[in-house]
Amino acid sequence: MKRFRYRALVTLDPPALGGAGVRYPSGTRALMVHAHRIGEASVDRYMPATICPDDQLPLRPGDQVVATITVTDDDAPSFLAPGQPFTLWGGSTGHGIISRRVFTDSGPC
Questions:
Q1: Where residue 12 falls among pLDDT bands split at 50, 70, 90?
Q2: Are the beta carbons of 67 and 52 closer than 8 angstroms?
Q3: Which position has the higher pLDDT, 11 or 56?
Q4: Residues 6 or more apart in contact with residue 70 via CB below 8 angstroms
């Protein structure tokens, strides 16, 4: 499976029933990204992802932050592109919008 990185504006919703998602020491979270295929709203996919906020502070419910999202899915470019909205699923839920794809492997996430 290929990994793709994207920059996005992300907002986490309050956790359901005390769930917090898997959180790493850096504040990075492991979640699933849910998006619809670009140009085909009837086709959607859940993709495993890690979300790393720019400031390395832990993401808290209600925070709106710019973050790097790393998605592991060969077809991610068919579902994620600039301007594409997405939702998050896991111990926490949320939503966001992709601002751009990142073509470098440098960085903490």
A1: confident
A2: yes
A3: 11
A4: 3, 4, 5, 49, 50, 52, 109
- pLDDT tens digits, one per residue of 85-99: 999 887 668 899 999
* Residue 82 DSSP label: T
What whole-number distance in Å separates Cα of residue 69 and Cα of residue 31? Answer: 10
Separation of alpha carbons 3 and 71, rounded Å: 6
In the chain the domains, ranked by start, together with CATH numbers, are 3-102 (2.40.30.10)
**Tokens read off for 38:** 């670009």
Backbone angle region of 56, left / alpha / beta, with phi > 0 → left and psi within -120 to 50 → alpha: left
Query: Distance between CA atoms of 108 and 91, rounded to whole angstroms?
Result: 22
